[in-house]
Amino acid sequence: MPDFEASSAVPLKIWTELLIGVEMVYLRASPVFYGFGIPPGDGSPVIVIPGFLGSDLYLADLYGWLRRIGYKPYYSNIGVNAECPNIIVTQYLNETIDKARRETSAKVHLVGHSLGGILALGAASLRPELIASVTTLGSPIRGSACHPVVLRASEMVRDRVLETNGHTVMKNCFTSECTCEFFESLRGDFPKGVAFTAIYTKSDGIVDWQHCITGDPEIDCEVPGTHGGLVFNPAVYALIATRLQSLAVKK
């Protein structure tokens, strides 16, 4: 696992995220969206996890596509991603992982967008025996180097988390200094038995793309497009299908 650095503000071109609408249209015009030209799934369970302030609702296209090409997708059922990460993983995401494992008797694939990818990495580090792979989409795996607007929003969420949960969460919750079970799992070595793919875009207007990579060319995969549009990007879909299929071949 890369070193997890403290949060920092980066002057990114957030206006480029307005192009997400174009990406959504382009996805529906792509053969990949309908399962053409990509390897079919093998029925394995895949959980999709939303990014910061998002819910499962905006992942409906990704969810439907996974089902269409032959996987058994699951929504994360974490609600809105604006809670203590340790609570989200241990109380909600783990429940979905257990459900997927119980219903399929197979190891689970996790696909997380932005902060959802960090949740996926933590879940895999805590329970590697249940996880087959983690795919992060524009996830700040080296620390939250984001646009100032995003950092201000995270500070507001942190204040609410502390007020709502009181002494049940760490005082440094929602920061890189937190020592909860979740953040400690991110500081250790990533489990060798879990495959890892980090998808990123250099046009990211939300997160500094250099914080979304490991430095390992076998793991890092670049695509064009926006941060928000990564979940509507046919290049991302093709990568996910190819990487998941390669793991099926290795079984």
Summary, kept brief:
The protein has 251 residues and is an alpha/beta fold. It contains 7 helices and 8 strands.
Strand and helix order = EHEHEHEHEEHHEEH
- Name the beta content range: 5-15%
Known CATH architecture: 3-Layer(aba) Sandwich
What would you give as the CATH superfamily?
A: Alpha/Beta hydrolase fold, catalytic domain
What is the CATH domain class? Alpha Beta
CATH topology: Rossmann fold
Helix content: 25-40%
SSE layout and pairings?
Elements: E1 8-9, H1 20-28, E2 45-49, H2 60-68, E3 72-75, H3 85-104, E4 108-113, H4 115-126, E5 131-137, E6 145-146, H5 148-165, H6 181-187, E7 195-200, E8 220-222, H7 234-250
Parallel strand pairs: 1-6, 2-3, 2-4, 4-5, 5-7, 7-8
Helix pairs in contact: 3-4, 4-6
